[in-house]
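Bench notes, afternoon.
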Amino acid sequence: MMGKRLLKSVFTIFSFLFLLSFVVNGGGFSNAIASNSIKNDIRDKLTRISDNLIENFSDDYNSPTNSSSAKTEKNTEYVYIGGFPIGIKLYCDGVIVVDTQNVETSGVYENPAQKAGIMKGDVIKSIDGKKVTTNSEVSELIEESNGNPLEIQISRNGELKNVIFSSVYSSVAGQYKAGLWIRDSSAGIGTVTFFTDEGEFASLGHAVCDIDTGKVLPLSGGETTDALITGCNKGKSGTAGELCGVLESGVTGEIMLNEKIGVYGVFNKVDTEREKYPLASKSEVKPGAAQIVTTVENGEPKKYNIEIERIDYISGENKNMVIKVVDSELINKTGGIIQGMSGSPIIQDGKLVGAVTHVFLNDPTGGYGIFAETMLLKADDLYQQKMAS
């Protein structure tokens, strides 16, 4: 029954549009063709079609599952606003090779990593079949090999590859050396964009990348802590500024994802004292006045005025908006957007519309933002996965 009503309604919509086009455009030929009598006759037909259209749609539209109030409740999501700093600790899924170096042996220099085909940015996943996740595990296995060949599995740009590696004896150190600089974790300060009643949170709006390789840090796990902002280094043309702070003791949440559109996870406790905002769909965001909420000194988050200069509704990345800081107080304090402010919520017309993601190096008052809707969809997906596991 519902399908028949819908089909009939679709037919009447096309009839309505055709007749309306005839009245307005003279059937696509000349307005002079449509006399007053014909126009009156068509107007009567349009009225009957309109009544029929409303009648056909009324049952479905007013049903409990499709009511206006139900749709509003489903589509309007309220979240707790962020703008406050958190400490972020990430543990790698494997061990990142941040550099290689020569080892002096018997008066000559060798680079065992290069010889094996290991490159900067590779992620060591296992050694002789043993999974490794820490620097100490890699060092121990290499030292115990005494220069004998090891089969090392690496990940390069998402592809796994096995190489044969042999350390060399260092005549300077008096022991076998691998010529590898490696990293198994990273820590820093970011800004929370929002969190929900369930505790799921979104932050940064971009991935945490290794400082030496520039690659996204592969995540095996992570945790959040409280963080205290102690000051900042102002940004200027050609140089990115940064927030300065310390990570406090105690774990406040679990980090579940580190990817190009942000760092996501679940807080252990929900701070219901924070302010709640409706979250805007990307279609609601428009160029014009807005505010960012951020913490640039010890204390609570503050709102600062910005302009959304341009919108990119198509990109699924983290550069959906071009923003400009116009608040003189924030410019005096930080020079504009600086490292550590990534994730700062963007508010427009009383709704959360996005988050700060990047700064323009040639002009720290400008940068990019990501849609909040994109971040919420990712946070919801992660939370559902966590509940299902």
